Amino acid sequence: MADYKPTSRRPIADIFRLTAQRGTRFCVRCQIHPDAISYLSIVAAALAAICFWKSRQQPWLLFLAPSFCYLRLWFNMLDGMVALASGKASWRGEILNDLPDRVSDVLIFAGVAHSDWMNPLFGYWAAIFALLTAYVGMFGQGVGVQREFSGLMSKPWRMVTLHVGAWVTLACLWWNTGSIRFARLTVLDWACLIVVAGCVQTMAIRLHRIMAALQAKSAPH
Fold first, then answer.
1. Domain holding 25: CATH number?
2. Which of 6, 79, 157, 194 could bond 34 through an S-S bridge, CB–CB 3.0 to 4.6 Å?
């Protein structure tokens, strides 16, 4: 859509954008639609979830699972870059850019919850707070100011926290006589609790900035 301009673009470090430049050119050249890339992010999240879910029987899958979490993030970045490069960015694309993200969050945390390495309730609370965090971030866009991506526990940092939890769990299995508990909670329990606490901070920061933007917008000039 020639008259469309993106209303919300997640700030991404240039070094990460560089990793997708060649992929962007390939997708544009092969006429791969950005929607297809958005759906691939769900596939990557589902593979991460399966790795977590089956890791009790095959602990080495804890090493592999974070790779699919990061692949999910990479597809999330690539779809927007391809949409802009190919001139296919649209309002519809904004919906299809966000909805797979929410599905992916639920899939990954559900896989972690049912890994048998933790209390499932912590995993589901992490999924709920991940959804709430994204929802709060969209408030600003909904009321006519900016979409908020600020805060400690944005989407990439949720995946980093799970990555650390997965690899520390695996390290404990190999080098800590198999003990994965600290203060009665497992490593992945702690990882999900950190996600929840970080999401609370992130929601507070985002709400504060949205309210400040609304006040500035409504102030007399």
1. 1.20.120.1760
2. 79
